[in-house]
Amino acid sequence: MEEVQNWRDILRKIVEDSKEKQRLIQALSISNITMSRWINGESTPRPPKLRSLVGLLSQEYREMMIAALREEKGLGEFVNPLDDETPQDIPPEFYAQVLLTRATTPRPLRYWSTCDLILRQALSQLDPHRQGLALWLIRCMPPSGPHKKVRSLRECLGMGTHPWKENLEPDGMFLGAESLAGHVVTMFHPQIVADLQEENTIMPQVVTKNERSCAIYPILYAGKIAGVLSALSRQVDYFSAYNRGSLLQKYADLMALALEPSDFYSDEEIMLHTMPPQEKQKQSFSRFSQIFRDVQQTVHDNVQSDLFVWQHLEEELLTPKQDAPEAH
Question: Could you say which DSSP state residue 314 is in?
Fold first, then answer.
């Protein structure tokens, strides 16, 4: 019988690839020194970090790591939560349903109809017992500014189970370089955080009392990115389970079908800025309806009017206000 490798030896082999090492260090919010201490046996990851590490690995290495951890005294119980009842795959008939919707829905409604269909199905599979999950489609805003770059992201469509509202779209915000979603868009790699209220992530995160863990996967096409599919759970360590992470990745891949090729951007086209706090954004959003009505005086297409208003608000939020000159 083939001998099971030590998990530290497996990790040592994985990080021989410098790019993979850097990806894991950034995703886990640890230092090079911490990674070296894990490999050399000088320290052991805390359970949430260990689960996050396993969840970030490729399927081949993930299976090897789980087998090795189960053999190591005192660590086997840490990987048991990775076994879950979540199905590994999207039902084949649902793929057919998405393709049919995409083929038969008029263009003005195709994006919304396809995204809504995918989000509902994903929510039903990822949270079948309605324990508390939120899903967001977060898209890149079109290039703008003097350099014609993607400067921000926007939470476009979202839905959840209690304690979140079913329809999260009215709560959508702009996100930028300050966010975990922004980090995923910049790096083209997923991010999993086992405990948002305890872990020091590489990016500051505005966390509400309901948000305990998250997973964010890029939406890719032809080597370009359109945004991310973001999932939030009220349970700690919810997305380290292999099936959940794998399923979320597949839904992110499927979401690419809802978008146009022109919605995807290369890394050279992305230069995310830091977006203002939510309170300031909400002040600007309060004027959305008025701006929309003004725009429709000249632009009669609702989709184009909507995009124009969001671009206007993005520019407003990214443009520093000049202080009024002092009176003499």
Answer: H
- CA distances for 193 relative to 55, 116, 240, angstroms: 10, 25, 8
Q: What is the reported pTM?
A: 0.76
One-letter amino acid identity for 326? Answer: E
Residue 27: Cβ within 10 Å count: 22
Alpha helices (H) in the chain, listed in sequence order: 7-14, 18-28, 32-40, 47-56, 59-71, 76-79, 92-104, 107-126, 180-187, 242-255, 278-285, 288-295, 302-318
Name the DSSP class of 167: B
pLDDT tens track of the chain, all 328 residues?
A: 355 588 999 999 999 999 999 989 887 888 999 999 999 999 988 877 887 788 778 778 888 888 888 777 666 555 554 446 678 889 999 999 999 999 999 988 999 999 999 999 999 999 988 889 999 999 999 999 899 999 999 999 999 998 999 999 999 999 999 999 999 999 999 998 888 877 555 555 556 778 889 999 999 999 999 999 999 998 888 888 878 988 999 999 999 999 999 999 999 999 999 999 989 999 988 888 888 888 877 877 778 888 888 999 999 999 876 554 454 4
